[in-house]
Amino acid sequence: MSETPPNTLQYRFDGPEGAPVLILGPSLGTTWHMWDRQVPELVKQWRIFRFDLPGHGGAPAYPAGSVRDLTDRLLATLDQFGVQRFGYAGCALGGAVGIELALRHPERLASLALIAASPRFGTADEFRQRGVIVRTNGLDPIARTSPERWFTSGFAAAQPAITEWAVQMVRTTDPGCYIAACEALAAFDVRADLARVGVPTLVLVGSDDQVTGPAEARTLVAGIPDARLAVVPGASHLVPVEQPAAVTDLLVRHFSTAWQPAFDSATGQTAIPATPLQPVLTAAPPQPVPIAEIAPAAPAPAPQSGTRPDPYDAGIKVRREVLGDAHVDRALAQADEFSGDFQEFITRYAWGEIWDRPGLDRRSRSCVTLTALVAGGHLDELAFHTRAALRNGLTPSEIKEVLLQAAVYCGVPAANSAFKVAQQVIREETTPAE
Question: Secretion signal: which residues (predicted)?
Answer without folding.
Answer: none
